[in-house]
Amino acid sequence: MCGIVGFTGRREASPVLLEGLRRLEYRGYDSAGLITGTGNELHLRKKAGRLAELTKAVAAHPAPGCYGISHTRWATHGGATDRNAHPHLDGTNTIAVVHNGVIENFAPLKHQLRSAGVQFRSDTDTEVLAHLIGHYYVGDLVAAVRQALTLVKGTYGIAVMSRAEPGLIVGARLGSPLVLGVGDGGTFLASDANALAGYADKVVYLSDRQLCVLNGDDWELRAQDLSPVTASVHDIAHFLADGDAEKGEFPHFMLKEIYEQPETLANAMRGRLDDADSTAHFGGLNLSPQQLRQIDRVILTACGTSYHAGLVGEYLFEELARMPVEVEYASEFRYRNPPMDRGTVVLAVTQSGETADTLAALRESKRMGHTTLAICNTVGSTIAREADGGVYLHAGPEIGVASTKAFTSQVAVMTMLAVYFGRTRHLSSIQGQRIIEELRALPDVVRRTLGCHDHVKRVAAKYADARNVLYLGRQYLYPAALEGALKLKEISYIHAEGYPAAEMKHGPIALVDESTPSVFLVPRGNVFDKVMSNMQEIKARGGPVIAIASEGDAEVAAVADDVIPIPDVPEYLQPIVVAIPLQLLAYEIALLCGCDVDKPRNLAKSVTVE
Ligand code: F6R
Fold this sequence. Notes:
With 610 residues, this protein is an alpha/beta fold.
């Protein structure tokens, strides 16, 4: 959730660190800090608040030196204050540490250190690590880091330096991502390869319990016992395009990412639609047709928006592949012990590929001997590397904290997977071909759907002062309603609930009054008449209705207070098309509420703590 950037080489470190942090600010933005070294002197700057505060502090008091480490924080232990910002130092101000993750046994360790006379300067779990490393330090930072880590329970991605070993940076990971970069005038360390675009040409992903040692142009990878490890080096250009991490002409990343969806959907499908066999195919699933045929149950596991995509996946797999599917919150699934037989495949859905709960669910399933697959956006991420097989979204980096383009691509990939599985079962080639053609038309349909933006703006202006909003849909559009509500609440802080429309009368309809608008997802389809009745129930109780409906639908217009028109598509594609006005509505309302849509309060991208 936090961001780490380190650099050692032949240029000033602080501009590299600040630029790297800028690109990672979406991962954590309640405070930031850096430390650089010259000779045996360290220069520490840290500030609560956004990165701009740190940038100002460094401009006022430059931090010289050609090596350094830095951090943007998302608070876990201790409030967002200057004092709690990273880096943290040991008692002799020799060792500096930045840390992502959580040291779970920090309380007993802190108690022991205090009993030995150590004075703490912050409320963080990380400071414990700085003192522990300091305790073991006798001139060999690598050895001291290794020894300190043997005492630690929890998760970490860390970067450490010592003023007694100028130029040296040690990194280590367990459960929190870390990537080493090799390039322009030195070596780099980061929690996310995005920070290194334009600086590093090559990257090496650390695995859990590995350490890395950087010094100028030299670097090496070590196992936990410090034995050397042969690194697999990847070309960074392979997965980061220039400008991906920039907003371009858009005022926010979120809006840019909403508008990218025609392209990202096309990328998700590129090379995967197979007209000859009326199916889809995937390079990385690593399943033979025989293995595929033996799968008799799919468990989809994910968090947040990816969980909602998984819920759409349940409908898709059931309808198109006639397969039993369950969808589980990864945070629950990881601690349950559900009976799973041999034919069960566990499919993790994740944009970042680093979500701690999803990773743990995947590992637990692997440990039990199940085949694990991943639908993932981030190339080289931990889940992408650890799953037995998977499908990349190819949506490019998603920087806005609210997930948008990843959701629609996840659903598109699951549609293709359902066709692929279905074609080994009951789905006829005619049905397969029809779906392929409908999928192929989807990017253009989504481009046309973006034309609803002006309608959405008008609706947003009318309802931006609502304090509660309901999102209602049925069948494929029930998960879409959950996702619409999540988008609104996370970026505008307006309370929103998604519900299956017919469930309202079993309780939540009590919430309906003139000040509580309901967003109805009601394009034409099998349950259209049913949803219309549900809409009437809300109208009868004085609730304002915003309908997202098929273009030109007079029946809906006669009942709803406001209509946002969308093009008609088959029902199984409606969650993708409906997502566009839902994302835009949340965006426009959040703007009117004066919220920072790309960096909503209390949130950060990529939840790498439990
Ligand atoms: C909401 C959002 C989160 C993520 C969730 C899972 O807009 O972005 O709910 O969907 O934290 O993240 P990934 O998909 O990276 O596993």
